[in-house]
Amino acid sequence: MKVKVLFFASCRELAGTKEIAVTLEGAENSTEALRKKLVELLPALEPVAWGITLAVNHEYTDPGQNVQLKDGDEVALIPPISGG
Amino acid sequence: MPEGAGNSPQDQSSSSATATSPHDLVMVTDQPLELSAMVAAVAGPKCGAISTFLGVTRDTHNGKTVVRLEYEGYAPMAEKELRKICEQARQKWSIEKIAIAHRLGVTAVEEASVIIAVSSVHRRESLEAVQYCIDTLKATVPIWYLEVYEGDSRVWKENAEWSGGGCCRQMVPTNTTVDGTSVAASAAGGAQCIETVAHELHDSGSGAGQHHHHHGHCHDC
């Protein structure tokens, strides 16, 4: 299955891109598996990838929560926000 | 009695201001923000009070000269979070209309990056709701800015209010007292959410009971 991953602000600069498509195979269908895959694909994300807040389809996930993903999901890495 | 009993303008606007907030305006835009347009968006014949907040780019931070801010946002999610804030404010206060707009892109010094306008029959509701809206926005809405200083150094900023997005589902780890010392979350707090009441900040002389909660502007409780 394929998910869309979005990067913002400091994460976008680390990743060097705003968006990538990531293919997850077989049992690799969770946000934990996605974090691992992202570090493989974009090693510059290593310092932040394991702990950063994720949003799945425009909703925050709980810290430490391993969310099941499905084909077509949009996952965003959300560094500490600074709106306002 | 004519059909649709509430045929005065007041009754009509009353029946349309439901908890699902059909008239609230939320906007994330790369266009300059206009206070007058935001005020117009919440004005109405029943509104005796319109309260507004503008977040504006200032020219210094910790002694460094700020040239501009560069805002970036996850627009669809930001608008979704802004709608949640409107709904939460409506649950807490009797409000006529809410309008929240956040700018993206470059803002120069003195330009507004955020404008919030809230209308209510009397002043208290809209004043308190405006404060709630900006405090919660800073904790939950996925928008970022890069502060660019004279000489081209730059920093991605982080709001003190941010608690990782899992705001309400997470226990508030510590509370910060008004004098800046950290204390353990009280037993009374438990795993409940603690809501910030910003005017507590001004009561620093009134004793140990006053806290400023740095984290956890919780919006679901």
Q: Descriptors for this entry?
A:
A: 84 residues; alpha+beta; Ubiquitin-like (UB roll); five-stranded mixed β-sheet; 3 helices; 5 strands; B: 221 residues; Aldehyde Oxidoreductase, domain 3; four-stranded mixed β-sheet; 4 helices; globular; disordered C terminus
Report on the architecture of this protein.
- The complex is a heterodimer of chains A (84) and B (221).
- Helices cover 26% and strands 26% of the residues of chain A.
- Chain A has 84 residues and is of the alpha+beta class.
- Chain A has one domain (2-78): Beta-grasp domain (Ubiquitin-like (UB roll), Roll), CATH 3.10.20.30.
- In chain A, a hairpin with a 2-residue loop joins strand 3 and strand 4 (59-60).
- Chain A is globular and about 40 Å long.
- Chain B is α+β, with helices and mostly antiparallel strands and 221 residues long.
- The N and C termini of chain B lie far apart (42 Å).
- Chain B has two domains: 23-156, Molybdopterin biosynthesis MoaE subunit (Aldehyde Oxidoreductase, domain 3, Alpha-Beta Complex); 167-212, no CATH class.
- The longest helix of chain B has 18 residues, at 75-92.
- In chain B, helix 3 (75-92) runs antiparallel to helix 4.
- In chain B, strands 3, 4, 6, 8 and 9 form a five-stranded antiparallel β-sheet that branches.
- Chain B has helices at 9-16, 35-42, 75-92, 123-140; strands spanning 25-29, 49-56, 60-61, 64-73, 97-103, 105-108, 112-120, 143-149, 154-156, 174-177, 182-184, 211-212.
- Classes of the chains: A alpha+beta (84), B alpha+beta (221).
- Chains A and B meet through helix 1 and strand 4 of A and strand 4, helix 3, helix 4 and strand 8 of B.
Compose a concise summary of this entry.
Chain A: Keywords: Molybdenum cofactor biosynthesis, Nucleotide-binding. With 84 residues, chain A is of the alpha+beta class.
Question: Globular, elongated, flat, extended or rod-shaped: what is the shape of chain A?
Answer: globular
The CATH architecture of the largest domain in chain B is Alpha-Beta Complex
Greatest interface and its participating residue counts = A-B, 22 and 34 residues
Corresponding CATH superfamily of chain A: Beta-grasp domain
The CATH class assignment of the largest domain in chain B is Alpha Beta
